[in-house]
Design goal:
This protein is an alpha+beta fold. It contains eleven helices and nine strands. 40% of the residues lie in helices and 19% in strands. The protein has a seven-stranded mixed beta sheet, with helices on both faces. A two-stranded antiparallel ribbon has the order 2-3.
Length: 347
């Protein structure tokens, strides 16, 4: 049998295999076995060395025609099998679009985030800046710039997590105020800011204490600032948070970075000042600390206390939220219990 006859028989055999192929994998095996480097067509072409110079061109052209014909047939069959596979998948994976879809659970803002954002909005409406700072701070900014030099007994009230002798986790957000005070250009106007953030103190974890909590501290420095400005500001903020009918009371206190210093109480919103278990039967609830910025704090920031004065205050988001919503354990804020957090979804 000559080479042309072998090629004809090969074409007939392979054509039948292509037509009978049921899967794309089976078809690809036929392509590799037939048209590959070790396939029969290549083997036939290797036998052309035994042909005469006159026969070789005709046999070579015939072999290439057979190769092209089979390749085209394989491609056509491939398209048929791909279309069939797609149709089968569509039948098997048909979706009933009339069925109700699965309800997607929507997350909610954490109650502490909601509380912080609400307080920030109040101060933004009053023209305050919001400035965030470092949670890891130096002893210099955390204590010394707040009139708490090394060895000062008031440091014991803020028992701290030290990383080294000079680096610690901040115990309040006051370092942010110290940094802003030394950078602020008072020739362009006074300073009004709040500094929200997380703070850390080595404390017993119980229903009312935690080793970490959140603060929002405020600072105002300008010419002619008085205690009356402090009282008016706090009264406005407290009424916005707890209701217009609330009253505030200032009691003398001590903070190293303010002089004079006060504790601020709000009239009890449960008993309206008559006395109950929430206010410990006093009619008042302690809510935050405040005072006029100490002249030494101003001087350390390069601010002349003879020209400028200011007030500062600090409140805790956890305490605000606990009072507003009747939460009796601070640890609920950090346990990630959706039964608790889901109660405070904004509608």
């Amino acid at each position: 049998m000559n080479l042309k006859e072998e090629l004809k028989n090969l074409k007939l055999k392979v054509s039948q295999q292509i037509e009978q192929a049921k899967t794309l994998k089976e078809l690809d095996n036929i392509r590799v076995e037939t048209l590959g480097k070790k396939g029969p067509i290549t083997q036939v072409l290797h036998g052309m060395k035994d042909l005469s110079v006159i026969e070789r061109p005709a046999v070579g052209a015939f072999a290439n025609k057979i190769r092209d014909t089979l390749a085209a047939q394989i491609e056509k069959k491939k398209q048929i099998l791909e279309r069939q596979a797609l149709n089968d998948a569509l039948v098997q994976e048909t979706l009933d679009v009339t069925l109700p879809g699965k309800k997607v659970k929507r997350g909610v803002r954490h109650i502490l985030s909601q509380t912080q954002e609400e307080i920030e909005d109040i101060f933004l409406s009053m023209g305050y800046r919001i400035v965030e700072g470092y949670e890891v701070e130096s002893d210099h900014y955390n204590f010394e710039r707040m009139n708490l030099p090394k060895g000062h007994p008031a440091r014991d009230m803020q028992d701290s997590f030290y990383i080294s002798e000079e680096i610690l986790l901040r115990t309040h957000t006051s370092p942010v105020q110290a940094r802003v005070m030394e950078e602020h250009d008072f020739t362009k106007g006074g300073l009004r800011m709040i500094s929200p953030g997380r703070v850390f103190r080595r404390d017993t974890d119980d229903a009312t204490h935690s080793h970490q909590f959140h603060q929002i501290e405020g600072l105002v420095i300008d010419k002619g600032i008085t205690m009356g400005d402090l009282k008016g500001t706090l009264e406005f903020v407290i009424k916005k948070i707890f209701g217009e009918e609330r009253k505030i009371r200032l009691r003398p206190s001590f903070f190293p970075f303010t002089e004079p210093s006060v504790e601020v109480d709000v009239s009890c919103f449960k008993c309206e000042g008559k006395g109950c278990n929430v206010c410990k039967y006093t009619g008042w609830i302690e809510i935050l600390g405040a005072g006029m910025v100490h002249p030494k704090v101003l001087k350390m920031s390069g601010i002349d206390p003879e020209v400028y004065a200011g007030f500062a205050f600090g409140l805790g988001q956890e305490r605000i939220a606990m009072l507003r919503f009747g939460i009796n354990d601070i640890r609920y804020f950090y346990t990630n219990d959706m039964r608790f957090l889901g109660q405070f979804a904004r509608l």
